[in-house]
Specification:
Its EC number is 3.6.1.1. This protein is α+β, with helices and mostly antiparallel strands. The protein is built from 6 helices and 17 strands. The chain has one domain: Inorganic pyrophosphatase (Inorganic Pyrophosphatase).
């Protein structure tokens, strides 16, 4: 981090509201929540290190010059088969569907706004471009870059033709975003196995933009973390800092502060799990062509019943022919500037 500055997080308590219209603290809902936690804990115990290593066994191929619009990160399996991080990496990392694969787009403390490209075949990770320039998120005091490992769940899609009942807004046409809060700074393009703890719902220009809060299952605190209340217990201040970060991060670009559903309050793990399950079903409709996907590239190498399935040779050709080089943009020290935001 620049100048050895450590971001300060304000300690707070985040209330947990009703899930699907039911009081979380009623006897019946409490019993269901305890059962959910017990099942998750049991399944995590059966997830061996060998299984985790196997599921993490993807490699990345970098094409183009870093800090250029040509720079792209493609994905291959351990045996060298090209895959799409959006369509071919499984959402679920275990048979019980309690552990999830997360594709890391932006490591914690970094500023380059990297994301899975929806339009490019095989959906490489690329840096977002705005007005012809590579995009970097601003540092809004006291934060430096992204304050978690930021990425997405594969095989999910926030359907822009679906109005989410709990928010009253349509989906944002992207895979669902994930904030991994563990101690380790992940690497760009890494596939990490995580457990879901909860979610917040950003309303971005009238669209629902879920932010799933999760933790690496190999994190030392993972066994103790089962629900959104545990985030406040073991990471005091982080939930409030997360809402603040999303509220203000676009203000230095001249945009208004972002809004949230549920008054910015976090929903619990059971609610978040249902949200992810729904976006997975929307992705299934997308990849099978039952739902319209617009300009999204649905090319894949593993979804056998998809009309967009391609072979290994074609995938290799796409990766090998991806442009090299590129016009490298100078990354100036303005990227490290701290912006002091006054909220009304």
């Amino acid at each position: 981090m620049s100048m050895g500055v450590v971001p300060r997080f304000v300690f707070t308590k985040i209330p947990i509201h009703n899930v699907f219209g039911r009081n979380l603290f009623s006897s019946s809902s409490a019993k269901e929540t305890r059962r959910f936690h017990a099942i998750t804990a049991q399944h995590l115990q059966t997830l061996t290190k060998d299984n985790l290593k196997k599921m993490s066994n993807y490699q990345i191929v970098e094409k183009g010059a870093p800090n250029s619009t040509n720079y792209s990160i493609y994905f291959k399996t351990a045996c060298g088969k090209g895959v799409s991080p959006l369509h071919d990496i499984p959402l679920y990392a275990n048979e019980e569907k309690t552990v999830y694969n997360m594709v890391v787009e932006v490591p914690r403390w970094t500023n380059a706004k990297m994301e899975i490209s929806l339009k490019n075949p095989l959906n490489p990770i690329k840096q977002d471009v705005k007005k012809g320039k590579l995009r970097f998120v601003a540092n809004c005091f006291p934060h430096k870059g992204y304050i978690w490992n930021y990425g997405a769940f594969p095989q999910t899609w926030e359907n822009p033709d679906h109005i989410e009942p709990s928010t009253g807004c349509k989906g944002d046409n992207d895979p669902i975003d994930v904030l991994e809060i563990g101690y380790r700074v992940a690497k760009r393009g890494e596939v990490v196995q995580v457990k879901i703890l909860g979610t917040i719902a950003l309303i971005d220009e009238g669209e629902t933009d879920w932010k799933i809060i999760a933790i690496d299952v190999k994190d030392p605190l993972a066994e103790k973390m089962n629900d959104i209340g545990d985030v406040d217990k073991y990471f005091p201040g982080l939930l409030r800092a997360t809402v603040e970060w999303f509220k203000i991060y676009k203000i230095p670009d001249g945009k208004p502060e972002n809004q949230f559903a549920f008054n910015g309050d976090a929903k619990n793990a059971a609610f978040a799990t249902n949200v992810v399950s729904e976006t997975h079903k929307f992705w299934q409709g997308l990849i099978s062509q039952q739902l319209e996907g617009g300009s999204i590239s649905r090319l894949n190498t593993t979804v056998t019943d998809s009309p967009f399935l391609t072979n290994t040779e074609e995938a290799e050709k796409i990766i090998s022919e991806a442009p090299e080089g590129g016009d490298v943009e100078e990354v100036t020290d303005i990227v490290d500037k701290w912006h002091f935001i006054h909220l009304k």
